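User: Sequence in, structure out. Go.
Assistant: Echoing your sequence, followed by the structure tokens.
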Amino acid sequence: MKKILIIGGSRGIGKELALLLAQNHRVLLLSRDLDTLEFLQKSTNHQLLIGGIDLTAANFKEVLEGQIRTHLSEVDILINNAGYLVNKPILEITADDLKKTFDTNIIGLIQACQATIPFMKNGGHIVNIGSMGGFQGSAKFPGLSIYSASKSAVAGFSECLAEELKSAKIQVNCLALGSAQTEMLEEAFPGYKAAVSAEEMAEFIAEFSLNANKWINGKVIPVSSSTP
């Protein structure tokens, strides 16, 4: 049984991922929306640990360390799934849009790694959820400039962190996801229908998180049926 920390999962892929992994593993699911997590916990028969956390808070790292110490003590797998998406033309992007996007998508992710790595005492696997928007050479879409930029940062950070953690036997990979049918996608692109469901994407991520680090490290992997 693995001890798994998922950051970002009150809905969409994170929620489905937590429910799937909690069937056979000890899962701590953290999100800002604690009320939704409590409802999710009550609605499942699986062992699912939950906690409230805000990636944009000044004390985020310290709070996360406390949550890990209380619920898991050690971590085998960290899945950084939290995301914030703004769909606006560049001239309409505000300072608040920039701050929320980068605080959530990259600064919070980095701090999550800083907080969790000391608890990976026997090695482990860090899976950072990126986006095809941040994958070099992929098709790009107007309105997603700062979201894509933040996810490009996730990709570069993941490659570098994998090198830094080799001696600790911690593998780091980034999954650059294509579109999946989630609430976040619907909010950004009303009416758009993705070819992949949140449940299907969660199945892929779960399997990758549990097993792929035996063969793969330091990679940014596009997870999309489209070319480029």
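User: And one key feature?
Assistant: The chain is about 40% helix and 20% strand.
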